Amino acid sequence: MILSIIILISGAVYFLINLTLIISTQIEIENPDSEKSASISVIIAAKNEEDNIIHLIDSLIELSYNKEKYEVIIIDDSSSDKTFETTLKAIKGHTNFHIYQAHDKIFPAKKGALAFGINLASNPFILITDADCRPQKNWLYHFSKEFNNGYDFIFGISPFYQDKSTVNKTACFENLRNSLLTFSAAQLSMPYCAAARSFGFKKSSFEKIKGYSNTIDTLSGDDDLLLREAVKNHLRVGTIFNHGAFVYSACKKTWKEYFRQRSRHTKTSIYYLARHKIFLGSWHTLNLVMLFSPILCLINISYLFLLIFKIIVDAGTVLFIQKKFGYRFKLWEIIYLQIFYELMIILNFANAVYSEDVWQ
């Protein structure tokens, strides 16, 4: 009797949490002042991005936004390739595009390059993306709407391009599950994470929290730890779900590159606020307990129900929301990738603890 109650309660809690995540991602707030175009400075820190930077520049040139209302500032952060020369040639004739080389950075790694660029920005609103990204044409338009709605910090959806490789499927599915949790938490007034591939803020709000001064716990975290400071200072954080504001990028092609990237991102979570670590720790613990529940079948076969129920709920959740985040997985892929995803959480955390933090 007690066992049945435990299983039913666990299943009900897991179902209700997933239902809450789904519902929260369907909430969108319309902006009454949507036609006013905000003046935006786009900042990119580029280090050895010779092969990617032209594609990003092409995407930014093609944005559906008044050219007089935005500028692009690219910071070459001590590249050893031809990033600077390639960029200089690509932006020739585009007066709202600029490139500078980072000198005398006040912060290490990427944060220093970004701070260098933000200091040069002439507009009141800042948008950050990465050199290997491809923003959609209405990226600035949708961020402008939310800036006009009074938000201090805003982040959007940043999917990976999908292909058939195992590394790609793993990275894409992980991005989908993490995005669901990230955006749901923000919609529930508990933002804790944002991808720097599509991240914006008021320059005055950035200055109010002293920029990156309080985020040097680790070399990474130019997005999450900056958001942490925004939350600590009770600033307004918004999200953008519109497909026209997606920022696509290619995920890592090898397992070595994938683990290195996940190590940096996971290491940042060690410096989250306590309430966010409790939230994430509780969520992942519940998932892992349900995943490994068959071990308890040695005690009672009924524990198998928890795993079966988890697989059904996970599959239903992903099938329902995946299009909203720019992905398309088949049912059989969702089942095995969800199990793989939970196992990778353990592996990535262990890797983050013992790996070295490097800005490449």
Describe the biggest sheet? 7 strands, mixed
CATH architecture of the largest domain: Alpha-Beta Complex
Question: Which parts are unreliable, with pLDDT below 50 for 5 consecutive residues or more?
Answer: none
* CATH level 3 topology of the largest domain: Spore Coat Polysaccharide Biosynthesis Protein SpsA, Chain A
Oligomer: single chain
The count of strands amounts to 9
- What is the tally of helical segments? 12
> Which CATH first-tier class of the largest domain would you pick?
Alpha Beta
Strand ordering within the main sheet:
3-2-1-4-7-6-8
Rg (CA only):
21 Å
Question: End-to-end distance, in Å?
Answer: 56 Å
Shape label: globular
CATH superfamily of the largest domain: Spore Coat Polysaccharide Biosynthesis Protein SpsA, Chain A
Total domains: 2
Class of secondary structure makeup? alpha/beta
Structure, explained:
The protein is an alpha/beta fold. It has 2 domains: 2-24 and 273-354, no CATH class; 40-158 and 195-269, Spore Coat Polysaccharide Biosynthesis Protein SpsA, Chain A. 48% of the residues lie in helices and 12% in strands. It has 12 helices and 9 strands. It has helices at residues 2-24, 53-61, 83-90, 109-120, 139-148, 166-187, 203-208, 224-232, 255-269, 274-291, 304-321, 331-354; strands spanning 40-46, 70-76, 97-101, 125-130, 133-135, 153-156, 199-202, 237-240, 247-249. α3 links the parallel β2 (70-76) and β3. α2 runs parallel beside α3 and α10 packs across α12. The longest helix is centred in the last third of the chain and has 24 residues, at 331-354. The protein is globular.
